[in-house]
User: What shape does this take?
Amino acid sequence: MKAFTKRRSIATVSLSGTLPENPQAIAAARFDGIELVEPDFSNVHMSATELRSRRENPGLRVELFQPLRDPVAASSSNWCGGLATTAVMEHSMHRLA
Assistant: This one.
């Protein structure tokens, strides 16, 4: 049977500071990875490639990326906008991984 290694991750929105600063703090606290939500990523002015290098430098992985928040409660007009955002976020996801 294959042994599983537990990995510890933390959501970047649970920390103070900015997303570009958080990977160093997360690594210093001995977490293995980060968890991102769409507003966290879209509110920062850096490319997915730049963010990738910042999280790779201290050896972190993106353990979870939530590109669409609360889709069930969205109105039909917000749903269409959410789908468009999700398509953009999917492109970014591949660059973050």
Observations:
- The chain has a mean pLDDT of 78.
- Residues 9-96 form one domain.
- The two ends are 28 Å apart (CA to CA).
